[in-house]
Amino acid sequence: MKRPIKVDDYRRLAQKRLPAMVFDYLEGGAEDESGLQHNRDVLQRIRFRPRRLLDVSQRDISTRLFDRALAAPMLLAPTGLNGLFWPKGDLHLARAARAHGIPFVLSTASNTSLEELARHCDSDLWFQLYVVHRRLAEQLVKRALHAGYSTLVLTVDVAVNGYRERDLRNHFQPAMRYTPAMLWDGLTHPRWAFSRLRHGIPGLANLADAGSDDLEIQAALLSRRMDAGFNWDGLAWLRDLWPHRLLVKGIIHPEDAVRCAAYGADGVILSNHGGRQLDSCVSPMETLAATAAAVRLPILIDSGFRRGADIVKAIALGARTVCLGRAALYGLAAAGEAGVYDVIALLKRELDSTLAQLGCSTIDRLSADVLFGERQTAKASVQLEPLA
């Protein structure tokens, strides 16, 4: 393939380099995977309505999120097992994000520990939390606080693990073991196999020694199940425990966003987990305008973003920032840090070009007026039960 010119080019390169079971883990979704395509379809159905004869000779795609200037309205979303795609994958993602002036969010399921990332990356530190067990969550939060993280991202859309049929058929699991099928898959992808032989199969670094003297925590880790009982009281507990910025990721209903604000969250991330949890779920883009009308919190969004134009559509409907998951991982799997860097650069160029075509000189001037068929104002009817 010639030099990649769009994110999907990196997707093809990633598929070529990775064994099938690893690419399936990256690419796959829940059940019939209709949610994967729906995320893209919703974005593609939204059409632009440009304005003409406006001076767009100077454009600015930078923005602000909370108290920080971002070079573009995007960040790298938390994704797990990145070391499977490229050795030290988390560090490469973090470095590429820092070079572009955008945040990177480290996952609980990362192959680099939160302490190691803090030692090797001097940018603003964000950590994503899965609640597997309440005491384990408390340990991770305190570690993140001690390591200097500024932002905690609580993921709430994994009460149970999604039914991912590709992974089930491939017998994929986080602690990968060599099997004859895996060995053959690796032999037919020699570049990936050589890197694995050299660096080994990555482990879950944040959980390696977690709760080693706590039988309940060890049982929770061995079962690989989330704490399905974690509820709004749990969010209140976490808000008291974490003194810095707290975002709630996995929100899809405006009423839940309103309740997050009431419980002290500093922002929400609209997400259907990239189609990996609940198939046939609505796209976050379908609830974005109503959520933006219902809350004054900064709204971030993910799931299905592959083009700079997609990012513009989300900002026009009320999002502050778009979180990139698979798009960045395609670059990582294809070419390591250089691939991630290039994917971000491609999206920034597309975003800039889209602004110019719309007759808009800055990100902050975007509104639903540039979109065709979208309501100019969105009113949310939100009725809540009294807070406990």
List keywords for this structure.
oxidoreductase, FMN_HAD, alpha/beta, disordered C terminus
CATH homologous superfamily label: Aldolase class I
Number of H/I helices: 15
Shape: globular
Low-confidence stretches: 376-388
Cα separation of the termini: 58 Å
CATH topology: TIM Barrel
CATH class: Alpha Beta
CATH architecture descriptor name? Alpha-Beta Barrel
What is the beta-strand fraction? Answer: 5-15%
Count of strand segments? 12
What is the string of SSEs from the N terminus onward? HHHEEEEHEHEHEHHHHHEHEHEHEHE
How many independent structural domains? 1
Helix vs. strand class: alpha/beta
The biggest sheet, with number of strands, parallel, antiparallel or mixed sense and barrel status, is:
8 strands, parallel
Q: For the largest beta sheet, what order do the strands appear in spatially?
A: 4-11-10-9-8-7-6-5
Give the mean pLDDT.
92
Instruction: Specify Rg, calculated over alpha carbons.
Output: 20 Å
Regarding quaternary structure, what we see is single chain
Helix content: 40-55%
Explain the layout of strands and helices.
Layout: H1 7-17, H2 20-27, H3 34-45, E1 47-48, E2 63-65, E3 68-70, E4 74-76, H4 89-100, E5 105-106, H5 114-120, E6 126-129, H6 134-147, E7 151-155, H7 165-170, H8 180-187, H9 190-199, H10 215-223, H11 232-241, E8 245-251, H12 254-262, E9 267-270, H13 284-294, E10 299-301, H14 308-316, E11 321-324, H15 326-358, E12 371-372
Parallel strand pairs: 4-11, 5-6, 6-7, 7-8, 8-9, 9-10, 10-11
Antiparallel strand pairs: 1-12, 2-3
Helix pairs in contact: 1-15, 4-15, 12-13, 14-15
Binding site for glyoxylate: 25, 164, 273, 276
Family: Belongs to the FMN-dependent alpha-hydroxy acid dehydrogenase family.
Protein name: Mandelate dehydrogenase
